Amino acid sequence: MNRTRILGLCALLSLSLLGCQKAKSPDKAQGPVANVTADRLLKATDEPSQWLTHGGSYEEQRYSRLAQVNRETVKTLGLSWFADYDTNLSQAGTPLFIDGVLYVSTAWSKVYAFDAKTGKALWQYDPKVPGEWGINVCCGLVNRGVAAWNGKIYVGTLDGRLVALDARTGAPVWSMQTTDNAWRYAITGAPRVVKGKVLIGNAGGENDVRGYVSAYDAETGKQLWRFYTIPGDPSQPPENDAMKMAAATWPKTGDWWKIGGGGTVWDAITYDPVSDLLYIGTGNGTPWNQRFRDAKHGDNLFLASIVALKPDTGEYVWHYQQTPGDNWDFDATPHIMVANLKIDDADHRVVMQASKNGFFYVLDAAKGTLLRADAFTEMNWATGVDKKTGRPIENKAARYQDGKPFNGLPGPQGGHAWHPMSYSPDTGLVYIPTQEAYFPWVEDPKYTHRKVGYNLGIDFGAPGWFYQKNPKEKNAFQSYVKAWDPVAGKEVWRGEVSQGPAGGTLATAGGLVFQSGGSSQEFRAYDAKTGEKLWHLDAQTGLVAGAISYELDGQQYVAVSVGGNMPGGYFAPNYSRLLVLSLGGKATFPPLKDYTPPPLDPPANTAAPEVVAAGAAVYGKYCAACHGVNGQTRGATFPDLTRTPLLHTQEGFNQVVLQGARAAKGMVSFATELKAEDSAAVLAYLVDRATQMKSAPPPPAGLLAPREAPKQAHE
Ligand code: CA
Fold first, then answer.
1. Which of 168, 272, 543, 618 is deepest in the core (most CB within 10 A)?
2. pLDDT at residue 30, as a whole number
3. How many Å lie between the centroid of ligand 1 and the Cα of residue 266?
4. Three-state secondary-structure class, residue 527
């Protein structure tokens, strides 16, 4: 195919809204590329040179059997090559490595293919997600990974499409809309392929969606089955027996179902070939505050649960609900892994999860029986799990009812969120990206459903005032890797503490644990047994994604996507990249670009205090989720509004807030929710904030642990 024809095809495909690759590698057109088969996936651990599926193998242990890079040699680990991405947004993607090619997804659901030997970009695919859809994505415009099967690469897009790409060219083979865009669904999670079916979930539990997971024929894109995680309209017959069981735990009347109810399957989808079951993790309830969806506090199945399904049909097999009647955004969505463990002198095939609610769960893979539930981090919402009933023993104050705030731990950031954990069969330890994050739960007594922004039923801006009013209350958001013994239910070691979200881990047969060090900007290697820090690389940027390892021409490599959460802010230079490392690697980054953040330069602060207060309330409700509590974002995801030139022009500010002047970047018009006086009040609040900050500058954003909105870590 010559270049003219390719461009012509690109134009056609663009017209058909499938998007198109930017470049093509003609020499890669020969021979199979991404020739992933059922047999290869089942035996992925027999091919340690490859990284064929999201978690490394179906068990998703993220354990590499390669050992060239080990405790002794890691000191010479260096950068082999790197590739810049076209964005300054946060990166969450785990790459795949298949037969010499690296495939990785980045922000806005884009996919890159790189020749792993040279680092040359073979193609890039941009699904051209409409910028306006960004407002429907809760926690960063991220994508956590792709899947591969029979010459195709699969990616889910922020606007709900599942797209199959030709692995050789990046050209779309098929594209299916997996969601109804009358609802505010988004896809950020990685698809998985099981028995020729592509499995994909979705996100949106902070908005107003009904969660589900679907299976599509990998070759044709035909939908094969769909499993809803919570019931629908109670006046209609339940879709199946599982929904009948679930409906008994929800109100029989009322409007709760009209905003979906939540329960989204936004990350964990794990297949175990031994039990032949699929395990999905389900998200929080909508709204977060249970009182506004179910005043009688039913269990609300299958929120915050691990549910086992038959992969062939999507039929329900068992479930374990971690947080009945979820009230705290305690998604049970983090990474689920499968392993063989000896527990109480018996061999068990288990599934394991370090949940957002702070408990580490070990369940029998075939039956879902609870084997272990231990707090892997400090918590104050529960004192333990009743082993007989499997239910958490709640602290009564934790439900923040009757207008009484509760300073909760973990907060909605989670004791562990999506950041991939890993397991080493050599040490028997799980390496958990652990977070310690408080959040003041304060009910919003005036809550009503909104069509733009979050539907939470709480004061999401509360961190902005609660800790000022209550300076003695504990307040932190920090993270570290924790080595956890899942059988003994205890910590063995922990790594260095970083401020803000945790980063993913990778365990290897070289006796190492690699960790993306979050805001520390370090990519690190620890001794898997002792926790001794053996090596690190300055990544020039924050990093939170999970790394992989592979082998090419006798050389072991470690690859990781970096970028985001850096102190520089939204307008800072771009250091979002794919890093590839090997022993003796000698590549170096270009020097950091000169950058000075825009100064704090507010106009005269003349608004009346009651206008500023009204602006603070509107800001907390509609703006804080993206732009940060107190008017200042931590990371690079969205602009810092205390430094915008728009503070000097109410007209310009209104054009953005009410007329959608920046809709293409995700900042849609809020005119359906806000009036001109609201926009004026928000501006007055931001001017007040900027004025206060100017007189007492806060510490650098990277060190700003307290009084920050949760960012990136919840969904
Ligand atoms: Ca959530």
1. 543
2. 54
3. 9
4. strand
CA distance 392 to 511: 35
Q: Are 207 and 252 in contact (CB under 8 A)?
A: no
Residue 595 has pLDDT above 90, yes or no: no
Residue 170 has pLDDT above 60, yes or no: yes
Which tokens belong to 393?
Answer: 């023993």
Quickly state the pLDDT bin for 21 (edges 50, 70, 90).
Answer: very low
- Cα 475 to ligand 1 centroid, rounded to whole Å: 21
Mean pLDDT (the chain, rounded): 90
Q: Read off the amino acid at residue 636.
A: A
Rounded CA separation 306/319 (Å): 6
The pairing of strands 197-200 and 212-217 is: antiparallel
Distance in angstroms (rounded) separating the CA atoms of residues 556 and 23: 28
List, in order, residues 6 or more apart from 501 with CB less than 8 Å away: 413, 417, 419, 435, 477, 479, 518, 519, 544, 565, 711, 712, 713
Could you report the per-residue pLDDT of 69-85, keeping only the tens digit for each? 999 999 999 999 999 99
Q: ∠ at Cα 715 (183, 642), nearest 5°?
A: 100
List the domains of the chain with CATH numbers.
609-695 (1.10.760.10)
Query: What is the whole-number distance in angstroms between the Cα of residue 288 and the centre of ligand 1?
Result: 8
Cα of 329 from ligand 1 centre, angstroms: 5
pLDDT surpassing 50 at residue 23: no
Ligand 1 centroid to Cα of residue 452, in Å, is 17
Q: Residue range 668-672: average pLDDT?
A: 89
pLDDT above 80 (res 543) = yes
End-to-end CA distance of the chain: 43
Element (H, E) at 464: helix 463-469
| Residue-level pLDDT at 401 | 84
pLDDT band, very low/low/confident/very high, at 624 (cuts 50, 70, 90)? confident
Q: How many CB atoms lie within 10 A of CB 312?
A: 14
Q: Is the peptide bond before 523 cis (omega within 30 degrees of 0)?
A: no
Mean pLDDT of 379-389: 97
Centre of ligand 1 from the C-alpha of residue 268, in Å: 13
714 CA distance to ligand 1 centroid (A)?
5
- The residues near 287 (Cβ < 8 Å, ≥ 6 apart) are 259, 293, 447, 455, 456, 457, 458
Q: What DSSP string runs through 314-331?
A: --EEEEEESSTT--S---
Q: What is the rounded CA–CA span in Å between residue 208 and residue 573? A: 35
- The DSSP bridge pattern shows strands 305-309 and 316-321 to be antiparallel
Which tokens hold the place of 77? 């680990």
- pLDDT above 70 covers what percent of the chain? 91
So what's the pLDDT on residue 34? 95
Of 399-403, 511-515, 607-611, give the range with the top mean pLDDT: 511-515
pLDDT exceeds 70 at position 295:
yes
Rounded Cα distance, 499 and 503, in Å? 11
d(CA 224, CA 217): 7
Q: d(Cα 478, Cα 229) in Å, to the nearest integer? A: 32
Active site residues per annotation: 329
pLDDT of 699 > 90? The answer is: no
Task: Indicate the pTM of the whole model.
Answer: 0.91
Assess contact for 687 and 175: CB atoms under 8 A. Answer: no
